[in-house]
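We examine the record.
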Amino acid sequence: MKKILVVGAGGQIGSELVPYLRSVYGSHNVVATDVRECKNLAEDGPFEVLDALNPTTMASVVARHNLDTIFNLVALLSAVGERNPQMAWGLNMGALLNALEVARQHSCAVFTPSSIGAFGPTSPKDGTPQDTIMQPTTIYGICKVTGELLSNYYTQKYGIDTRSLRFPGIISNKTLPGGGTTDYAVEIFYEAIRNGKYTCAVPSDVYMDMIYMPDALRAIVELMEADPAKLVHRNSFNVASMSFTPEIIAAEIRKHIPEFTMDYDIDPVKDQISRSWPNYLDDSCAREEWGWKPKWDLELTVADMLEAIRYKLGHNR
């Protein structure tokens, strides 16, 4: 049974990953931490305030709780990172290095999410392979590529069990996104239900891979439970579920809300970032090495998102 530290538990992934991990491994075996108090995560399991840039405190938490696995979720996302690249580098890489060092000192495994943002305009756009040229043009992407290489180094140099997933945009009905280029794919549902219209900051014709949060959570656990002898790759696996443009997801929403309309006010930063990313990823290595298979496609995701957000906003009463 794993005993897990989740660093950055209050973010988009962590706020849903912690309850999911606690349902799998038991509440007392998952210690959630964040730089600020998160009352919802402290209600059903251990929680501690932790600055991920303080390795001494991180090591203390690991030692006191006798933990064997670290999930490092700390990151400034793509669009936010471009506004302050120096801070993004310091936070993203500082938290990862601390997690790896604590893991080395205490013999822990480490999971760190990577991203579709690790690819750049020179990567193949369609069916982007697991192993290909990676020259991202954002500080977020540069951090992710560096993080993949650093994690592989800690595996090769120190024998640390490091594993990672290159997530596409994550769609969630529970947690609002935090400043990424793919945020529109969550915002659009709230605006469709509240106002029947949405102004999109991403160009109408840009394809980007997405994944629904239930698939993302399941993928993390399945990867961390995979037999290490079968893993040719570690940092980081492409995972894919669905790829669409803003126009495609808007058309799917209109099947449920026929009066929904969408216009555009293109954000130059998001325009540049979104066009530099792949249209869709080849995730055959994840399928072959640890049995990855998505369950949620666009049609199922849209129907479930609309139902969940209607309930959340009180529009079904």
